[in-house]
């Protein structure tokens, strides 16, 4: 079974697997609490899958806070 979106596609938007996992897990918890999504059409039935689809479509991303480093 092939997973969509693929890790290769996701890594084009988020350059770290650790960041990708952390970001999608946090977003999944947020969706579970609020029931609000950044995309209207999604294929996944699970929150983490929807979060990964949001990353793939460029709706979910992160920025680096230069002051925090």
From TrEMBL:
Domain of life: Bacteria
GO cellular component assignments: DNA-directed RNA polymerase complex
Gene Ontology process terms (BP): DNA-templated transcription
EC numbers on record: 2.7.7.6
InterPro entries: DNA-dir_RNA_pol_omega, Pol_omega/Rpo6/RPB6, RPB6/omega-like_sf
Keywords, alphabetical: DNA-directed RNA polymerase, Nucleotidyltransferase, Transcription, Transferase
EC supergroup of this enzyme: transferase
Reactions catalysed, as given in the entry: RNA(n) + a ribonucleoside 5'-triphosphate = RNA(n+1) + diphosphate
MF term (GO), any: DNA-directed RNA polymerase activity
This protein's record includes keyword Nucleotidyltransferase: yes
Keyword Manganese part of the UniProt annotation: no
Record-linked NCBIfam families: rpoZ (TIGR00690)
Family designation: Belongs to the RNA polymerase subunit omega family.
Biological function: Promotes RNA polymerase assembly. Latches the N- and C-terminal regions of the beta' subunit thereby facilitating its interaction with the beta and alpha subunits.
Subunit structure: The RNAP catalytic core consists of 2 alpha, 1 beta, 1 beta' and 1 omega subunit. When a sigma factor is associated with the core the holoenzyme is formed, which can initiate transcription.
Name of the protein this chain belongs to: DNA-directed RNA polymerase subunit omega
Native organism: Pontibacillus marinus BH030004 = DSM 16465
């Amino acid at each position: 079974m092939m997973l969509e979106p693929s890790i290769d596609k996701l890594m084009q938007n988020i350059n770290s697997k650790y960041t990708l996992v952390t970001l999608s897990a946090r977003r999944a918890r947020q969706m579970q609490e609020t029931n609000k999504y950044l995309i209207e059409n999604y294929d996944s039935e699970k929150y983490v899958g929807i979060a990964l689809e949001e990353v793939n479509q460029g709706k979910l991303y992160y920025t680096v806070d230069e002051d925090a480093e």
